[in-house]
Amino acid sequence: MLRNLLALRQISQRTITTASRRQIENKVREKQKLFQEDNGIPVHLKGGVADALLYRATMILTVGGTIYALYLLALASFPKKQD
């Protein structure tokens, strides 16, 4: 049992330490340049089309949720009359 655990430990260490790693290109400077550019675009929209879509979806959900909450509040404040 102990021999099996030691063998498993050795195999797991070997596969982790010898695995080849991908080299990821560092794009931080490019992103910093993009976001610090003074071009009149708000920072939350500088990411492109995806940011604009996320922003619009968030605004639609927020406004829609507020309107729905006000509707339910008005509905609850005027109870139906029982005949």
UniProtKB/TrEMBL annotation:
CDD domains: Cyt_c_Oxidase_VIIa. Pfam families: COX7a. Gene3D superfamilies: Cytochrome c oxidase, subunit VIIa. The keyword Mitochondrion applies. InterPro entries: COX7a (IPR039297), Cyt_c_oxidase_su7a_sf (IPR036539), Cytc_oxidase_su7a_met (IPR003177). Its main location: mitochondrion. It is found in: Mitochondrion inner membrane. Pathway: Energy metabolism; oxidative phosphorylation. The chain crosses the membrane at residues 53-78. It is a single-pass membrane protein. Signal peptide: none annotated. It comes from the Eukaryota. Keywords: Acetylation, Membrane, Mitochondrion, Mitochondrion inner membrane, Oxidoreductase, Transmembrane, Transmembrane helix. Belongs to the cytochrome c oxidase VIIa family. This is Cytochrome c oxidase subunit 7A2, mitochondrial. It comes from Pipistrellus nathusii (Nathusius' pipistrelle).
